Amino acid sequence: MYISGEGARVQAQRLEVIANNLANVETPGFKRDVPMFQSRFAEAIQDGTDYPGSGSQNDVGGGVKMISTETDFSRGGIRQTDTPTDFAINGEGFFNVRGGDGQVYLTRAGNFSLDANGRLQTQTNLPVLDEGGAEIVIDGTRPWSLDSGGRITQEGDSKLLGMTEPQSLGDLVKVGSNLFRSLGPTTPVAGRDVRQGYLEQSGVNPTREMMAMIETSRAFEANTKIIQHQDSMISGLLSRVLSNS
């Protein structure tokens, strides 16, 4: 019963991850989450009073547990929007933005906008940074352009978009609002390819996620039915014992 209960709990956690992926199927630059599972030993083996392969009743296993949630950094497709403040990275790297705590965060979501002061910002009003870490300000009343190298030019003035990448994608941690924090050092992106008027689409495949949701729902129902079956068996056993006492 406890193994089935743990299985139901794990499937419920998996459903939460899948639901979050589906909720962001239209979010530019979103990277899907993938729950990672691992079988667990019985409590006696974990406590050291038994050992794997002993052949005892403790060797049947202790169910399954979700050990982590990994991020799939596969690049999404690029869609043309013709909006001047929409930027898409066609390759490696992330845009640099400054969070409310003053720290620099990374994002692939290039659906930027200009505020009343001409500051280039994210959808959550965080400033987009140039290569020197300064906020990018553009006069929206005058012509400006972005070249494929990530350089913004306006009437002779130019500034290079801040774009970096971690030493390993495994160093990145999601912090919400489509942002990542790097646990290790980052380096400037070499060989930039940025496209103005385009957006990177979400990395979520809705068909795949819906299939995973159906599979997970069925696994959850199977575990709950086993719990009910075990409960019914124990109730019947107790009834017979009490009737014979």
TrEMBL record:
<feature type="domain" description="Flagellar basal-body/hook protein C-terminal">
    <location>
        <begin position="195"/>
        <end position="236"/>
    </location>
</feature>
<dbReference type="GO" id="GO:0009425">
    <property type="term" value="C:bacterial-type flagellum basal body"/>
</dbReference>
<feature type="domain" description="Flagellar hook protein FlgE/F/G-like D1">
    <location>
        <begin position="88"/>
        <end position="139"/>
    </location>
</feature>
<dbReference type="Pfam" id="PF22692">
    <property type="entry name" value="LlgE_F_G_D1"/>
</dbReference>
<dbReference type="InterPro" id="IPR010930">
    <property type="entry name" value="Flg_bb/hook_C_dom"/>
</dbReference>
<protein>
    <submittedName>
        <fullName>Flagellar basal-body rod protein FlgG</fullName>
    </submittedName>
</protein>
<dbReference type="GO" id="GO:0071978">
    <property type="term" value="P:bacterial-type flagellum-dependent swarming motility"/>
</dbReference>
<dbReference type="InterPro" id="IPR037925">
    <property type="entry name" value="FlgE/F/G-like"/>
</dbReference>
<comment type="similarity">
    <text>Belongs to the flagella basal body rod proteins family.</text>
</comment>
<dbReference type="InterPro" id="IPR001444">
    <property type="entry name" value="Flag_bb_rod_N"/>
</dbReference>
<feature type="domain" description="Flagellar basal body rod protein N-terminal">
    <location>
        <begin position="1"/>
        <end position="31"/>
    </location>
</feature>
<keyword id="KW-0975">Bacterial flagellum</keyword>
<dbReference type="Pfam" id="PF06429">
    <property type="entry name" value="Flg_bbr_C"/>
</dbReference>
<dbReference type="InterPro" id="IPR053967">
    <property type="entry name" value="LlgE_F_G-like_D1"/>
</dbReference>
<dbReference type="InterPro" id="IPR020013">
    <property type="entry name" value="Flagellar_FlgE/F/G"/>
</dbReference>
<keyword id="KW-0969">Cilium</keyword>
<dbReference type="Pfam" id="PF00460">
    <property type="entry name" value="Flg_bb_rod"/>
</dbReference>
<keyword id="KW-0966">Cell projection</keyword>
<keyword id="KW-0282">Flagellum</keyword>
